[in-house]
User: Fold Peptidyl-prolyl cis-trans isomerase-like 6 from Clonorchis sinensis.
Amino acid sequence: MHYKGTLFFRLVRNGWIQGGDENFAIKHDRRGILSMANAGRHTNDSQFFITLAPTPWMDNLYVAFGRVIEGSLTLDLMEEVPTQNERPTKDICISEIQIMDPKDLSTKLC
Assistant:
């Protein structure tokens, strides 16, 4: 599964940006956490979001599966896009994505 070409369709200022259509081990304790979105209990699907601020209330409710290693400036630019009812008024699209093996990131994750 990959998200290349996926649009981000929801942007909550100082909260998260959501796009796309495991377990609770990773905490929502920093900016850049990648987590699965859902519409309530037992409804996880392929949508995901990236936190724009710490959101500890999401722990044990949403499954975090990674974090942004590089691209904080990109998150800043995404957060500045105008919205109407939490929907970006301009398309925000994933143009490139690289999924890395955690073993290769061990020095970057600390």
Q: What stands out?
A: The domain at 7-109 is CATH 2.40.100.10 (Cyclophilin). The chain has a mean pLDDT of 82.
